[in-house]
């Protein structure tokens, strides 16, 4: 059995950034670009209306900054977003135009619909509109071609991490695919012949599969791509088949079947599939039975494999401590984002550790960032997901710390 620090070190040594991949933009969130994104077109690609109103010539408004004066114009066409009218706007006339429609040739400004007097705001092609625009400016309410960026311009540099805004920008720039250190693909297998899915009412002897959905959520929250492979029972053949499938991913997470029971088939099945064990069992509570290994291959990139303990709280604590850094390294993120930041907080009550193993105890953290306080939650151990669900952090009670008094300082691992 090894210590948490040693286990983390072994994981960091075994993990490595994935090679760049070209991925569809819809799959790119969270990735780090390895090639810049260059715009293929100007944006906007043409001059466009930024308001609903009337596209007009400047001469009709007696130059910029004219005083309040009503201008009466023929409405010669209607232009909605998506239309591509080519009709020329001449002095004395205008085009009724909607936000997002292209500015017709000859038009030099948009007068918003709110500036139409009487009921002429409702006028369409063939009618006459009366406009009063006291602060007219040539070019007003027109988004000009190339205002945002130009064709050939680099809109996203190498190394940029793709959040929602960056993904939207890449789409605007015409990149349907991007090359990135892609979010790692993480296969998830839950083992246990007792497990049924959440939509099933368990019969005697069965329980619902918490870990499958929980791990998928944890993977997604760590900006990686979950690939749920369902429940494998504790039977050699289905487990072998599920593992063979899961080893095609960058990372394979299994839950359950890693302790010393008769039906704990995971380590043996992984070994038979060629996965090399790096460690088995770590001195911590909850999460002691965790197994970690790697499948190395000639042509393909290695797959990291975590056999997480079946009890849900153990599963999630092991995910936070061990899987999270492996995913961050695989995603190519810098060292300072491999682990969640830790804080030192003041205990509001007494707390008791374990003589042999450090305990990661669910707790609530409050107070300011500068002087946080921490309160352990009532918690029924490694199966008590309800207790964990009320926590916003885990606090670390070192092995052999005995009884810590209220006011003691403890290390805290925020979860949010
Ligand atoms: P194991 O690690 O397979 O020995 O499982 C330890 C405990 O966790 C047992 O009580 C299992 O029934 C339970 N368990 C295993 N897998 C899951 C799961 N996916 N969801 C909820 N509980 C589980
Ligand atoms: Mg089991």
Describe the structure.
With 416 residues, this protein is of the alpha/beta class. It folds into four domains: 2-18 and 183-337, Molybdenum Cofactor Biosythetic Enzyme, Chain A (3-Layer(aba) Sandwich), CATH 3.40.980.10; 21-43 and 149-181, Molybdopterin biosynthesis moea protein, domain 2 (Alpha-Beta Complex), CATH 3.90.105; 48-143, Beta Complex (Molybdopterin biosynthesis moeA protein, domain 3); 343-414, MoeA, C-terminal, domain IV (Beta-clip). Helices cover 18% and strands 30% of the residues. It has seven helices and 29 strands. Strand 21 and strand 22 form a beta hairpin. Helix 1 (4-14) packs parallel to helix 6 and helix 3 (211-221) runs parallel beside helix 6. It is elongated, with a radius of gyration of 31 Å. The two termini are 30 Å apart. Bound molecules: adenosine monophosphate and magnesium ion.
Category by helix and strand content: alpha/beta
Mean pLDDT across all amino acids: 94
Number of helical stretches of at least 4 residues: 7
> What small molecules are bound in this structure?
adenosine monophosphate, magnesium ion
Largest sheet entry: 6 strands, mixed
Secondary structure: helix percent: 10-25%
State the fourth-level CATH superfamily of the largest domain: MoaB/Mog-like domain
First-residue to last-residue Cα separation: 30 Å
Per DSSP, what share of the residues sits in E-state strands of 2 or more residues? 25-35%
Low-pLDDT parts are: none
What strand order characterises the main sheet?
17-14-18-22-21-19
